Amino acid sequence: MTTELTAVQLIDKHRPTLDGALEAIRTRAYWSPHPEHPKAYGGTDESGRSSLSAGEGQAAFDALRGTRFELDQPGTDGWVGDEVSPYGIELGVLYPRPDIEVLLPAMRAAMPAWRDAGPQTRAAVCVEILARISARTHEFAHAVMHTSGQAFMMALQAGGPHAQDRGLEAVAYAYQEQMRTPQSASWSKPQGKRDPLQLAKEFTAVPRGISLLIGCNTFPTWNGYPGLFASLATGNPVLVKPHPRAVLPLALTVQVAREVLSEAGFDPNLVALAAERTDEGLAKTLAVRPEVRLIDYTGSTAFGDWLEANARQALVFTEKAGVNTVVIDSTDNYQGMLSNLAFSLSLYSGQMCTTPQNLLIPRAGIATDAGAKSYDQVVSDLAAAIDGLLGDDTRASALLGAIVNPQVKDRVEKASDLGQVALASRTVANPDFPGATVRTPTIVKADGARKFWDGPDADTAYLSECFGPVSFAVAVDSTPDAIELLRHTIRQQGAMTVGAYTTSTDVERLTEEACLEECAQLSLNLTGGVYVNQTAAFSDFHGSGGNPAANAALCDGAFVANRFRTVEVRRQA
Amino acid sequence: MTTELTAVQLIDKHRPTLDGALEAIRTRAYWSPHPEHPKAYGGTDESGRSSLSAGEGQAAFDALRGTRFELDQPGTDGWVGDEVSPYGIELGVLYPRPDIEVLLPAMRAAMPAWRDAGPQTRAAVCVEILARISARTHEFAHAVMHTSGQAFMMALQAGGPHAQDRGLEAVAYAYQEQMRTPQSASWSKPQGKRDPLQLAKEFTAVPRGISLLIGCNTFPTWNGYPGLFASLATGNPVLVKPHPRAVLPLALTVQVAREVLSEAGFDPNLVALAAERTDEGLAKTLAVRPEVRLIDYTGSTAFGDWLEANARQALVFTEKAGVNTVVIDSTDNYQGMLSNLAFSLSLYSGQMCTTPQNLLIPRAGIATDAGAKSYDQVVSDLAAAIDGLLGDDTRASALLGAIVNPQVKDRVEKASDLGQVALASRTVANPDFPGATVRTPTIVKADGARKFWDGPDADTAYLSECFGPVSFAVAVDSTPDAIELLRHTIRQQGAMTVGAYTTSTDVERLTEEACLEECAQLSLNLTGGVYVNQTAAFSDFHGSGGNPAANAALCDGAFVANRFRTVEVRRQA
């Protein structure tokens, strides 16, 4: 496109969207400007916005394969890329590898004009970037699918509208935070009978410096957009370092951002890509550069801890590993509980940071609307529910997606080493992609007696994150013990989510108190179409930022407030 | 007092004050509920609020001397204290030294009820604490004077109403931040022809853990209240570890806080004192305790850096050393400039973190409304202005206060080692306190040629903080060079304040750009009754949080947003 965009046009165009987002984060009611249904895309809608149809998105993705992904960044030092889809196809896309001695200064040089543009213009440009991304949702869906291994529908929704929602949410928080201080103020202090003291004051939100986004393999856009847009909206250039196995979704994002920035009259180097050679470890190099003052990271605890310890010149926002627990005390909807849990454990083969891992079930069984159920019965009924859900290979593939990398595949294949298998994983054939690695979830039985998790001899598999389609049916001595184990697990390992099923108000209260004290997000008695592993932008917080799984939540004031500083210039009036 | 306070009463009583503060931080206009004039205190005002008069405050302070300061804290392990006033008198007050193995658990046990009270009640309790402190302003004035060495009027104003303003400002930010998310929400997501998905959500602001306040010698209340009240208002217990030479003002604060908390039905252990034996190094012990999750610190760069590197379990807010610069390019009010600078350099003997240190003056002189002035002339005129301001010992004492500690005294006495002395420091006799150590400021000439501050041979005294009444008249080759040196100094050493005098719009623009890019607060052309080293709560930011002098600003969203987290509990509706 060649249209020049003025700031005023952009602000006018996107004011309703921004206002909608601001209202939604205030009320926490349901809201989204990004349609979830695949058929909502294609053609031109009533407001004149055109988007790629399913076929156009597929074609756009196909056209990218085997090409050089041109970004016209300063300081390109060769071309890199070896993405292979979890569905078995090679993408063959080559990306520019940056010469950071050239790229970083170019990014810094772009800062003053972007700072001077102010919060409103920055927000409008960010919303325009998201709108252009939204229009290419079908293209992004394939890019996310073939890097993360998500099934197509999930890749479209989580990688498209849901990720865009999370990006917009960050823009709204960033805008609101910067607008809390006025641009100027008159200050007049009475001095009794003398003239008042008078000052004219100006306040400017200033960026911290280059913001580094270190992308992840499983949710490159969903986990990447909050940090990217929070930093950009607060005036910082963003250098995007994607996971080497999931470059394309973020490369497309960078491309759109650069296009919009240019058209709006800003330096496109405010957003740049840092692709790397295999095993280059570029994130480590970039993270300690003095120009890098903000880092957003999603990934392993080991590297997150390394960043927090070593990238001391930067503010570091991390989402690391955690162990998610579901306390199963009792239920008045046994079938609903089983169906809900079966879906949660199966979705994207359990490869979500929010997937439950440990199901804590009293050894003596639980009370349900279908009568008392023993521990063994609950476990076998859950196994049956999963079997039923995934009985048909086509349907199973649409829910499971594909295994994202060989480590996860190894883990599920070796799960029987961890204990007695209550539900074995099986291989599923994907009818469209014979090369896809697809596995159903496995459930391992475990003993939750206190000695196994508390004290000198504690050494049990379920206390560590076992990322992928492996969960543990942990037999606990009582529900109070389950709540103690829940607390212990959150404190030691962190948790992105906690679930609980109970008909007892006492147990509900104890579980809530545990989550309030240990700082974890709790879903109670989900038996319908909402799952513990799903959160909705503008309403639900993703992570708490208060336990070891993540030092930030998506999204709140703390996620944006320190990405900029306020400089005051005051003059005698 | 024995009155029981209900939350509703407190909220009603303090709603106007809180609303006033919220409005002030939004508009940044002048506002304060705390009178500055000493005569505003005493008796009972029209709203029924009684306060200590000057005489009563003096008597209350006198009565404290030579006593045990009882706080009724759990876990007292002996009594400590050896404060000696910079005015030469021994305070002789003994404080409880904590057994932290008893005190810390007691503080943690107080958290759930304080969390459950909610942001509004917490804010009201905090405002009540501030109101009680305000009523004892005259007593606090003596306590601050005889620990910091501030002159009485400054101790009363900066240690009283201005500190209370900064505390209230933090309460307002904390309240507002917690209220951005509603307590509950109904969420209903349309599902086309099917029933909508519906959830009932509850959101609770939860504390991080014990907050440690490490107080400073020079401004125990002013620098201490923001962190104390920000943490308390967001639900965290606060352990106050005062500077061993400035315990009394914070011990009084803890006493008032515990009294109000008890009367309002909360556990007084939400605020506790940690006094220590001389050279015990208790801050280091406390800072790495796992229960301590927040730290507020004002003091040396060395210990601030140690905290940031070692107290990794906590969020650390630091104000450290910096080097403050004034660029002197030109002026249309030469006398006003000289008077303003003379006052700034003299106030509290230059012992403010905001006092200018380096005055950058072009070697070729400057243009003024009184004609061209050579570098030497500017320096000698400034020296004369200081001499004039401090010519009378009584008046000088009222402005200078006393030298806070022997290190500052040594520094000013050895200033001639640093270069040619343009204004020598002299000893002033304090008529009321013969034991007071009082010194006037000294000005040392220095060469600001680039080779002395930039490059391999750079090694000049003015590039380091020289805390106390020592400033440098730095001869620079040009105003652009001055701005380069300003940038260099902020980047390397940090700065709490920057001043500039110029009649040139170009120089003004360049100086502003330097401050925006290096992130420092700028005061332009101050020639009247506002000084570069003074900031007003609710309007001015103290520090920027974006250069090495401090990682936080007083006060903004970033100062409070991460002191609590939000836990969500969602249920199927």
Folded structure, characterized:
- The structure is a homodimer of 573-residue chains.
- By secondary structure, chain A is an alpha/beta fold.
- Chain A has helices spanning 7-27, 54-64, 100-109, 111-135, 137-148, 152-179, 225-233, 248-263, 282-287, 301-310, 334-346, 375-389, 393-400, 406-413, 479-493, 505-518, 557-560; strands spanning 43-44, 50-51, 76-80, 95-98, 184-191, 194-207, 210-214, 238-241, 271-273, 292-298, 315-319, 325-328, 330-331, 358-362, 367-368, 421-423, 442-447, 470-476, 498-501, 522-524, 564-572.
- Chain A is globular.
- Chain A folds into 2 domains: 7-15 and 53-182 and 207-320 and 554-572, Aldehyde Dehydrogenase, Chain A, domain 1 (3-Layer(aba) Sandwich), CATH 3.40.605; 325-524, Aldehyde Dehydrogenase, Chain A, domain 2, CATH 3.40.309.
- In chain A, the strands form 6 sheets. In chain A, strands 16-17-18-14-12-19-20 form a 7-stranded mixed beta sheet, with helices on both faces. The first copy, chain A, has a 5-stranded parallel beta sheet with strand order 9-8-7-10-11, with helices on both faces.
- The relative contact order of chain A is 0.13.
- The two termini of chain A are 47 Å apart.
- In chain A, 39% of the residues lie in helices and 18% in strands.
- The model of chain A has no long low-confidence stretch (mean pLDDT 96).
- In chain A, α5 (137-148) packs across α6 (152-179) and α11 crosses α12.
- Chain A is built from 17 helices and 21 strands.
- In chain A, β10 (292-298), α10 and β11 form a beta-alpha-beta unit.
- At the A-B interface, α1, α4, β5, β6 and α16 of A face α1, α4, β5, β6 and α17 of B.
- β21 (564-572) of chain A pairs parallel with β20 (522-524) of chain B, so a sheet runs across the interface.
